[in-house]
Amino acid sequence: MAIQATFIADPVLISNPSRISIRGWEQCIGSLVLKTRPRHLRLSNGGRVRARASLNADSKAVGIPRQWYNVVADLSVKPPPPLHPKTFEPVKPEDLSPLFPDELIRQEASTDKFIDIPEEVLDIYSLWRPTPLIRAKRLEKLLNTPARIYYKYEGGSPAGSHKPNTAVPQVFYNAQQGIKNVVTETGAGQWGSSLAFACSLFDLDCEVWQVRASYDQKPYRRLMMETWGAKVHPSPSSITETGRRILQMDPSSSGSLGIAISEAVEVAAKNADTKYCLGSVLNHVLLHQTVIGEECIKQMEAIGETPDVIIGCTGGGSNFAGLSFPFIREKLNGKINPVIKAVEPAACPSLTKGVYAYDYGDTAGMTPLMKMHTLGHDFIPDPIHAGGLRYHGMAPLISHVYELGFMEAMAIPQIECFRGAIQFARSEGLIPAPEPTHAIAATIREALHCKETGEAKVILMAMCGHGHFDLKSYEKYLQGKMVDLSFDEEKIRTSLDKVPQVTRN
What we know:
Subunit structure: Tetramer of two alpha and two beta chains.
Radius of gyration: 22 Å
Shape: globular
Keywords: Amino-acid biosynthesis, Aromatic amino acid biosynthesis, Lyase, Pyridoxal phosphate, Tryptophan biosynthesis
Pathway: Amino-acid biosynthesis; L-tryptophan biosynthesis; L-tryptophan from chorismate: step 5/5
Distance between the termini: 66 Å
Structural class: alpha/beta
GO cellular component, one term: cytoplasm
Helix content: 25-40%
Protein name: tryptophan synthase
Largest sheet: 6 strands, mixed
């Protein structure tokens, strides 16, 4: 007989048992009630114990959200439409059908406020969701700050990041439509490994083009994908016309996400039994990630906290949107008023240095034109950039929300990011992926500012994954070989010169 333990205690602390005081354990034990029906509680490492936490008799245990939230429904000014790459007219559903299954096309253009999550997807989500909200008390102590720092940890998923939140539904909808093969690109490998994981569950073939710089630097990410059955190619590759053209111009090309997208899209467009999956940027991807913020709102309510500052890293923008969009809804409804900050790498600063314009999502110009903050679809980050977040553009929906003034943006150089990651690892124990090191660095800045002003702000941070397969970057930092990359104005100017000139009312 399985035993369920119900006890009165702080659900955030229960998600991280090492933080429970002696008195807290006494309260837990004193309130222990045995039942025969098992429930699951997540530990901070993604494991399970047969227990359920409640704050008081009136509160409900935080469960997995049953709907995704669509921020478009609450925006008085709707985002500009994507445009056909040849006609520059708004894309129609049939324009996208070679790439995506029907349900994802519907979600991409939806203005519904909530979209139900299929039961099959919820069942798989339950392998790692709900994810823990953890108070970083040891980091607070290290920084000697009056701020209270919380992080929403997505690293307990099978792939070690937030990416399966959208990989699973994308593969589900493809399988439902009878698709047998999906293709994609990946940079650091978190998205590629997440899609490979999802395909293994639904018995779909998966083919991945991984940016050459990451393919060489992160062999274990490639091995994860192959373990789940995916076929992985370094990009640019000799398999596609796009790849061959790039290699002819530069045989030693380190690649970019834009190039890898072009290769994957080319394969999908030429094969009727194959669809394309994207791990960030598009509306339906950001939609799927809102399970993060929806859970987090309930978790913070349960402990009586309201965030004053919300911080997340941004490359394409999916994890940032996943945490922040539900909170933006609450902000628009007048319930809370947090400052929301997107943090990007100084080496690839699309929000802070790019232009807000229609641009291609890929290097070859095969994807629809999207209005976004962009560095130009030809932009290729320096291969020594260790911090992930390598995409040339920001998600159109995040770009639109930024233009409306609902969030702020900042760029931080990589040495500061990894210095913050080391402080986090040596106080909180978790080794962050390179991407959230940017959010950690910004959080540390904010906490130290609170130390100067004496403000006891509540800081909420998106901790989107662990760095167990990204230790090469840490090695570079620890050996003193990491350098901050200067922002090359001429390189950006050359890339921006190739952004299409599109004028629309």
